[in-house]
Amino acid sequence: MSAAASPVPPVALRDAAVRDLAWLLSSASLLAPSAGAPLAQPWASVADAARTAAWLAALDAQPAPLHDALAHARPVRLGRYAECLLGFFVGHAPSLRLVAANLPLRSNGRTLGECDFLIETARGERLHWELAVKCYLCVATAGTASLADFVGPNLADRFDLKRAKLVDHQLRLTARDEFASLGHAGPWRAQMFVKGWLFYRADDGANAAGAVADPPEIGADHPRGFWITREAWPKFALAAARRDVAWIVLPRLAWLAPRAFDDADVACGRCVPLASDAVIDEVARQSGPLLVAALARDASGGWRETARGFIAPDDWPRRASAFAAR
Fold first, then answer.
1. Which of 218, 223, 152 is nearest to 10 (CA)?
2. Which of 14, 156, 242, 321 has the most CB atoms around its CB within 10 Å?
3. Are 162 and 170 in contact (CB under 8 A)?
4. What InterPro entries would the database entry show (predicted)?
5. Where are the beta strands (DSSP E) in the chain?
6. Average pLDDT, stretch 213-218?
7. How do beta strands 150-151 and 260-261 pair?
8. 167 CA to centre of own chain
């Protein structure tokens, strides 16, 4: 079974951290597989998927062990949060055994890199997983984009550079001669675990994801969102308001699975639905792009995320295009 086939839909889970973990395991990869860079498979068979489904359901009913692990790690960065979630999975999942995590590889006093996860499957396969969780905004306006056109919201990261580091360096660590000295006998099959969201410009008030074709390196069916400038936001939000949509600002550790809330979440302040003009007030307090999610009422009376996107400063597209062209 492929990693994109979910044994438990994240939306069926109530606990936010468990839902993030299920999404991390089951969402489509941002990158397509390529020679020497296959995709990680969290479950290898229908039976493995069924065991994972039962494990996730049990964890959702009693999530304290996951909460305790996160409280101990105290992640503040999205990548570290995702690493903690995946580490909990490979350390407790029914079909995997964690051999090592965050294993540094050194030579002559110099650090060559760090292996994210070394894993042994129930069938005895030895896997080297490299994890990356990213949110990139596409700045291409027509035709087929390149990976360089996908940039981080703070213009400190670019998808082509990340892929090159992942494929050309990180995935090759366990194949280096120096790795044998660490005592973890192989061979190890290196696989990439690249999850996240890609955002496409939607200044005309509709998601324009189809206006630009993705490059072949990008995986099919990856999670998509929109991005828009502050100037264009009122028109965009007006169209959404006609569909009785409310908005929330997503803190960084809420950037994984689509959000879901009930009235208790609203009552205790975990969810504060905002009108579009209140979102503008939040945007005005930020110097960079702000990630927001659209919420709509579901059949049970709760709130479910229906879309998400970045609201960027008006000069951000110019700076982002220059960063993409470097």
1. 223
2. 321
3. no
4. DUF1853 (IPR015003)
5. 96-107, 110-121, 126-138, 150-151, 189-201, 224-229, 246-249, 260-261, 290-297, 303-312
6. 95
7. unpaired
8. 18
Amino acid at residue number 152: G
3-state secondary structure of 310: strand
Percent of the chain with pLDDT over 70: 93
Sequence-separated (6 or more) residues with CB below 8 Å from residue 225: 197, 198, 199, 200, 307, 308, 309, 310
Q: What is the pLDDT of residues 298-312, one digit of tens each?
A: 888 888 999 999 999
Cα separation, 198 vs 201, in Å, equals 10
60-83: buried (b, 16+ CB within 10 Å) or exposed (e) per residue? beebeebeebbeeeebeebeebbb
Phi, psi of 182 (to 5 degrees): -80, -10
202 pLDDT band (50/70/90 cuts)? confident
Residue 229 · residue 316 · CB < 8 Å: yes
Q: How far apart are the first and last CA of the chain?
A: 40
CA atoms within 13 A on the CB side of 115: 27
Distance CA 167, CA 172 (A): 7
What span, in angstroms and rounded, lies between the C-alpha atoms of 85 and 25?
Answer: 10
The one-letter code for the residue type at 289 is P
Residue 53 makes CB contacts below 8 A (sequence gap 6+) with 7, 8
- Point out which residues pair with 189 in neighbouring strands: 127
**3-state SS string over 98-133?**
EEEEEEEEEECCEEEEEEEEEEEECCCCEEEEEEEE
Is beta strand 303-312 parallel, antiparallel or unpaired with respect to 260-261?
A: antiparallel
pTM, two decimals, is 0.92
Residue 18 near residue 56 (C-beta atoms within 8 A): yes
pLDDT score of 260 more than 80: yes
The average pLDDT across 60-77 equals 97
Residue 303's nearest CA partner among 325, 270, 326 is 270
